[in-house]
Amino acid sequence: MASLAERAHAAAAFIRHHNVISLHGPYRAEEHARTAVRLAAALGLGLDQIATTPDWLRRRTTPGEPILATATCPDTGETYTFLARSPLYDDEPFELLGPCPECGGTVPLAEIRHLADLGTHLAHPPLKAEELLRADTLPDTFTRDEGHTCTCSYGETL
Fold this sequence. Notes:
The protein contains three helices and five strands; from the N terminus they run ααβββββα. By secondary structure, it is of the alpha+beta class. The protein has a five-stranded antiparallel β-sheet, covered by helices on one side. A hairpin with a 6-residue loop joins strand 2 (67-72) and strand 3 (79-84). It is globular, with a radius of gyration of 16 Å.
């Protein structure tokens, strides 16, 4: 295992390198790189197990455009997709995305700040549509997320 100084150097080098090679421009590239570093650290994964992409569904034109980050388990190959809704702020939680119990759209199901939050979410069985009204574990953004289908009663009405 690498020392703390070596891992810190690798993270800084990853951000610098990502800024140079990214097609998103230097500002968005840094947001993507910092999101990957932050998620890798929170989940105890290597940077090579995190991939980021712009979130075209929740897109806005202000700084800190949302980023999707996909973490891949090195042992099982299973993937988890997280939303960094405001990547400019390091203290904002990631939102674990998954299917809405009612419409099947990809929406935030849990706030994840560290590995234990993911463990807590995974320890519970998936929510059923009839349980949504009394679910206290859903993020505040669940009901207004753009990932709901247009027929879902939880989607934002436009």
